[in-house]
Amino acid sequence: MTEPITYIDLGVGGMTCDDCVVHVTQALESVPGVQHATVDLASRSAVVTASPDVPAAALAAVVRATGQYNVFERGRRLASDD
Amino acid sequence: MIDRFDLLILGSGSTAFAAAIGASELGARVAMVERRTLGGTCVNRGCLPSKNLIEAARIVWEASHPRYDGLGSAHVSVDFEALIAQKDAVVRDYRARKYASVADGMTDLHILEGDASFVGPRTISLDGRTVEADRILIATGSRPTIPTIPGLDTVPYLTSDLLDADEAVRLRELPESLIVLGGGYIAVELAQMFARLGSQVTIVARSELLRGYEPELGRTLTESFRSEGIEILTATRVERVSGDGRRVALAVETPTAGRILRAERLLVATGRTPNTDGIGLELAGVALDPDGYVVVNGELRTSQSHIWAAGDVIGRQHGSQMATPVGARQGRIVAENAFKDARRTFDGSVVPRAIFTDPPIAVVGLTEAEVKAGHLPAVSATTPLKYVPRAGAIHRPEGLVKMMASTIDERILGVHMIGESAAEVIHEAAMAMHFKATIDDFIDLIHVYPTMSEALKIGAQAFRKDVSKLSCCAE
Question: What pLDDT band is residue B148 in, cutting at 50, 70 and 90?
Fold first, then answer.
């Protein structure tokens, strides 16, 4: 039996270049329960693939701890919703 | 089609722009809705145009009333139409540089024009278009209050909207005579401006001028206005208004007699009313107080946790004031609370404020009445500005500074000044109060001699000694 997976949609602030994308991606993927993060510079957004119990606050905390970036949750959907 | 945004802002004034910029920096997709002119009251029909014209009026007045023996008076002719045209150009330029181009340069900020109204807690109808947002800011500002007076609704009258550059209500001709209804900051600024440009002005106020401020300020201003030829009727009630587009008549009751006042135009400046009606707040479940202000908690959240309100629409809650920089600060706070979970609150304890009359008035902190109402142990010291060397040197001795200090730790709790350069001087007091300065901090700071800022040093010394006996540089 596979664990349930959630896609978490995030708005991302503070990014100006591809290096920023790398930093935000690394920060998001450092959160326990996060499997993968796809960060997009142009749309200033990210989609995090994670277990359902990963709270938005945990994602926000690691990203804000960089001192340069911000994320907030727009919504989340179960992988089975696709 | 439904448009979705992370933050929808009703209004486009200083509050809205600060919130939009802050939210955009934090990654949000933002829409701002405006039904009048982009930029709100301050830039279009408030601070900016009034300060432009008030300065022009000062130039006219000072040329014909030189304060120095040896200087002859000169007549400066006023081409009112051209004067208004330059004001309109200043407004449009400032609006373009500080609002429109800022909006253009921001990622994911959308300006929506039209009449917006809530149709649900997260949904707005905008001239038939549906817009949704997870977070909403009500920053719709305020408008001139129109009092209920028999006949007023049948007579053309002006409000401070006359300052607008682009709306039909703007004023294009200088009235030969003008009755100003109201005694607050807008009434006194505009009354003196018109008087100095050449109108015969009568102020009709229900109480004294500048009620709510230290009474010494209104009294000094009243004397000054009367010496300039402005008629002031205080404690006066308006019974009835009549007239047409060319003349207006007011039946008034002064404390001593009934009178009929006549003038070419009437300017109603009796306060500000929040723009919270007609936008469907009841459908959003947003609570208002009995005066129509949006009820907010310290974090500027309304009764709906995803809807915030800031700027003029919250009135005086949590130490707020109706003022452009206050709204701007609150807009930034809302952005951080909405998208960064910052849980910031607005601190209104040190908010300097100015009234751009001549002499100008500026205040920060508590009044004596507020100190008494709060049962705070404090003393006041009031110093006439004639003891400030610069005031004497440039023949501007009128005015005073009144300071309130705690008797527990001698911290300065409030500074209230009327006199030359007060609107600039007040920032020293505000910064000092921000850092919790005491009487001695003001006294110990070496001030530039001779400046009007020495009023604060001398005003602080008045807690200790007779300042009429100070030598040079107030040591």
Answer: very high
Q: Residue A81 — very low, low, confident or very high, per pLDDT cuts 50/70/90?
A: low
- Chain B window 131-190: which residues touch A at a Cβ cutoff of 8 Å? 134
Q: Residues B113-132: what's their mean pLDDT?
A: 95
> Which chain B residue lies closest to A73 (C-alpha atoms)?
B339
Is residue B76 within 8 Å of residue B38, measured between CB atoms? no
In this complex, is the C-beta atom of A60 within 8 Å of any C-beta atom belonging to chain B?
yes
B343 touches chain A (CB under 8 A): no
Instruction: Give the residue on A whose Cα is nearest the Cα of B5.
Output: A74
What is the per-residue pLDDT across B166-193, written as a single tens digit (0 to 9) for each? 888 888 899 999 999 999 999 999 999 9
Give the CA distances from residue B93 to residues A65, B83, B165, B439, in Å, rounded to whole numbers and listed in that order: 40, 16, 11, 43
Cβ pair B27:A74 closer than 8 A: no
Contact present, B356 and B193 (Cβ < 8 Å): no
Distance from CA of A75 to the nearest CA of B (A): 10
Q: How far is B2 from chain A (nearest CA, A)?
A: 16
Which residues share a beta bridge with B136? B8, B307
User: What is the separation of C-alpha B21 from the centre of its chain, rounded to a whole number of angstroms?
Assistant: 23
pLDDT of residue A25: 98
| Tokens 């926000």, residue located | A60
Structure tokens at B60: 């006219």
The answer to whether A64 touches B342, Cβ cutoff 8 Å, is: no
- Smallest CA-to-CA distance from B7 within B331, B368, B470, B284 is with B331
pTM comes to 0.95
Say yes or no: A44 contacts chain B, CB-CB below 8 A.
yes
At residue A82, does pLDDT exceed 60?
Answer: no
Does residue A3 register a pLDDT over 80? no
Cα distance between residue B202 and residue B114, in whole Å:
38
Contacts of A64 in chain B (CB under 8 A): 340
Distance CA B460, CA B412 (A): 9
Are B6 and A72 a contacting pair at CB < 8 A? Answer: yes
The Cα B41–Cα B44 span in angstroms is 5
Decide if A72 and B25 are in contact by the 8 Å CB cutoff: no
